[in-house]
Amino acid sequence: MSTNAQKRGFGATLWDYLTTVDHKKIAHLYLIAGGLFFLIGGLEALFIRIQLLKPNNDFVSAGLFNELLTMHGTTMIFLAAMPLVFAFMNAVMPLQIGARDVAFPFLNSLGFWLFLFGGLFLNLSWFLDAAPNAGWTSYASLSIAQTGHGIDFYALGLQIAGLGTLIGGINFLVTIINMRAPGMTYMRMPMFTWTTFVVSALILFAFPPLTVGLFLMTFDRMFGANFFDAAMGGNTIIWEHFFWIFGHPEVYILILPAFGIFSEIFAIFSRKRLFGYSSMVFATVLIGFLGFMVWAHHMFTTGLGPIANSIFAVATMAIAVPTGIKIFNWLFTMWGGSIRFTTPMLWAVAFIPSFLMGGVTGVMLGSAAQDYQYHDTYFVVAHFHYVIVGGVVFALFAGAHLYWPKMFGTMLNEVLGKITFVLFFVGFHMTFFIQHFLGLWGMPRRVFTYLPGQGFETSNVVSSIGAFLMAAGVIVLLINVIITSVKNEKVGNDPWGDGRTLEWALSSPPPYYNFKQLPLVRGLDAYWIEKMEGKKGMTPAEPLGDIHMPNNSFIPFLISLGLFIAAFGAMYHGDEGNTWGIPVLIFGLLFTIGSMFVRSIKDDHGYHIPKEELIDDNDKGVKA
Amino acid sequence: MHVEEKMTVETWPAAPEKQTLEAKNKFLGFWLFLGGETVLFASLFATYLALKDSVPRSDMPLAKDLFEIPLVFAMTMILLTSSLTSVYAMYHMKNFSFKKMQVWLGITVVLGLAFLGLEIYEFNHYVHEFGHTFTSSAFGSAFYTLVGFHGAHVAFGLLWITTLIIRNSKRGLNLYNAPKYYVASLYWHFIDVVWVFIFTVVYLMGMVG
Ligand code: HEM
Ligand SMILES: [Cu+2]
């Protein structure tokens, strides 16, 4: 199948991707879509930094600045970081547990299309009316009062995209619980699978509050409800709570998979078993649990009172403990290992001090009394960029280099990879380190300019130059991708030579059914164990037999399209003299429900790959 | 075991809802989905409690002025009974008595419709007798959102169960559709449990002020 794809025309390939339910192809889709949104978000960041290059700059207007700022944050979190993390989860996790596919291939595809249509909807705001402009947090006190449709794009777009994420979370949970290969006990699961597991649970419990918050905002803005309108008895603090009950777990939803990717990298390139595996698992679960107890540290200055603030301050600082455990485990993994400084490893090594600094400022912010000083200054901006860029984005770069051969069958160029790393690493610290001091000197965040003579000039110039270095790093990566794809030199199963987990036992990319015979897992780092005993591959756990596969389907696309259409109806129906809004809303919803109905009544048993065909494949493999 | 296989009473397994891997996945996935739904409703309850009786003018109706126990008590009994009839349906599914299962599910749907009818009547009553609407106050918004979300779940459940009844009417039970029936009944129970909380938190606690 994968070889067929190259011979087929563009149309057939496109149709294949529109209807695919294969987790490996869905991973490609997430990577491409997430990558594009990452570029858009990055461009917005550059505009922000150009505007702040000098005092009283008028590169963009104050209004446009607010839109850029809001869309940068929203895009990066929801449309870039999340889907890119999902890309690696889809590409790698099923292989790591020795599964042929995810539990719900159809829902997997639905999750992707919902995310994509949600993201498109949000970004169409640039061309229609106005973009959201109340910050990625969109506090109701501000957002309810905004004229135009910007905030509506935010509420509806995130609703659709969020639904997709929730579906993805359930899918991964069931996959990990039900579809592990024989011998793959929970305590033998690779760290990346563990973090996927915990993160999926976080998604399941953290996204519904966001769903509700967005519904309330939608109802208030488009259907005349009064949840946040104090004059009608409403209360804007409700939004803040929902947003952060979602929002704090969300930052852990992003960082835990990053921890997972780095855990794999440290073990692979130190050629050593991950130090303290069980304490790593424990720390991951504990972080996931504590992540739900700390949301009000974002609301210290809201006025919840000293008792609430103290409780949340203590809970917040407690999270530093399991995080510290992890840092030490990574250090001890490297200790005494035979380290190879490949591109992924460079990112991993650089991640430790970078992320650590973000953690330290986090604990500073977590002390409620201090936070009154830091809140809404550049100090907070520095903090969360150190954890999100120094943690999550570094992991995405590292993961892209590490898993590129597994996803596309060819290696990214190592020299270019290292150039990307140096440019981005230096740029990152240049941009954000100085922002700690800008914050301490009193520069407020989210303001479109500043006055001369306050001592902010030089620092802002440094910060902006750093941003351009990061952009240069990303451009080198893009060049790397193009060169690599054009050359297209195929690699074998284990291109890094030191793969430890099951995905490296398969060809790159794996066949569409992943495992011809499910592998027998005999311990942590299953593939490594076999290699140490001189074996070429995994011992099969079952005789060769027919393989059951799911059918492709176009319905996920249609279900998502319906909601996309409905969102336009909901948004515009309240406009002066609008007559088509409600009909379009109803049509879109019926379109979605109708598509679900078709899915429900049409039996879909999938198909079987007969045993004989699999033997064929094997022979071909031997000849080649 | 093949999903399309023709089954008989003898070959019908004790747990027909989780024989295949797909069925097991569906079973677990649906429970997890209900976990997410629980958080969703918990959030709506929290909103309701925060905004209960929060009205802009003192002459507007509050919870204690609006609710009347007889009507909601009847609704509660109807929905609880529908949960019971869906249990009967699942009992017959396990015994491979397709006809009886379909009949009990049919009764479940009828009860569900009755519940929805009363709910519409109830909302209509509040709107026309008291001017208590979705847009009249934060209290109104929170009330209709919480109870309305539940109502929308009931409506969706009715569509779903009806689809199953009609779709399978000609072909009887097999291991492909048994899990579908099963999760639909799980969903129905969940809706019922949520209603018990609504009855307590919104109506009973509303009566006492
Ligand atoms: C030791 C761990 C951490 C602690 C103690 C901590 C603490 C805090 C506190 C107290 C704030 C609120 C600051 C304010 O607004 O005044 C904050 C903001 C933030 N943190 Fe952290 N944090 C930690 C780790 C992380 C991680 C791992 C991430 C993401 C991967 C993260 C992402 C954010 C973001 C995005 C914000 C800003 C949200 C906004 O207002 O726009 N934090 N952190
Ligand atoms: Cu937080």
Automatic annotation (TrEMBL), chain A:
| InterPro entries from the UniProt entry | Cyt_c_oxase-like_su1_dom, Cyt_c_oxase-like_su1_sf, Cyt_C_Oxase_1, Cyt_c_Oxase_su1_BS, Cyt_c_oxidase_su1_bac
**Where in this chain does the record put each Cytochrome oxidase subunit I profile domain?**
9-522
Which transformation does this protein catalyse, written as a reaction?
4 Fe(II)-[cytochrome c] + O2 + 8 H(+)(in) = 4 Fe(III)-[cytochrome c] + 2 H2O + 4 H(+)(out)
Topology in the lipid bilayer = Multi-pass membrane protein
Gene3D superfamilies noted in UniProt: 1.10.287.70, Cytochrome c oxidase-like, subunit I domain (1.20.210.10)
The keyword rRNA processing appears for this protein: no
Q: Which CDD domains match?
A: Ubiquinol_Oxidase_I
Q: Which GO terms describe its molecular function?
A: cytochrome-c oxidase activity; heme binding; metal ion binding
Report the subcellular localization. Cell membrane
List cellular component terms (GO): plasma membrane
| Keywords, in A-Z order | Cell membrane, Copper, Electron transport, Heme, Iron, Membrane, Metal-binding, Respiratory chain, Translocase, Transmembrane, Transmembrane helix, Transport
Q: Which PANTHER family match?
A: CYTOCHROME C OXIDASE SUBUNIT 1
* Database matches in NCBIfam families: CtaD_CoxA
Q: What does this protein do?
A: Cytochrome c oxidase is the component of the respiratory chain that catalyzes the reduction of oxygen to water. Subunits 1-3 form the functional core of the enzyme complex. CO I is the catalytic subunit of the enzyme. Electrons originating in cytochrome c are transferred via the copper A center of subunit 2 and heme A of subunit 1 to the bimetallic center formed by heme A3 and copper B.
User: What is this protein's record name?
Assistant: Cytochrome c oxidase subunit 1
Can you name the source organism?
Cytobacillus solani
UniProtKB/TrEMBL annotation, chain B:
Q: Which spans of this chain does the record mark as coiled coil?
A: none
Instruction: Determine if Disulfide bond is one of this entry's keywords.
Output: no
**Record localization:** Cell membrane
Citing just one GO molecular function, the answer is: cytochrome-c oxidase activity
Which residues, if any, are the signal sequence?
none
Membrane topology summary: Multi-pass membrane protein
- Sequence intervals crossing the membrane: 28-51, 71-91, 103-121, 141-166, 186-206
Q: Which residues form the Heme-copper oxidase subunit III family profile domain?
A: 1-207
Q: The organism sits in which domain of life?
A: Bacteria
Entry GO terms, CC: plasma membrane
Chief location category: membrane
Q: Does the keyword Transmembrane helix apply?
A: yes
Q: Which GO terms describe its biological process?
A: aerobic electron transport chain
Q: Which UniProt keywords apply?
A: Cell membrane, Membrane, Transmembrane, Transmembrane helix
Instruction: Give the family this protein belongs to, as stated in its UniProt record.
Output: Belongs to the cytochrome c oxidase subunit 3 family.
| PANTHER family associated with the record | CYTOCHROME C OXIDASE SUBUNIT 3, CYTOCHROME C OXIDASE SUBUNIT III
Q: What's the protein here called? A: Cytochrome B oxidoreductase
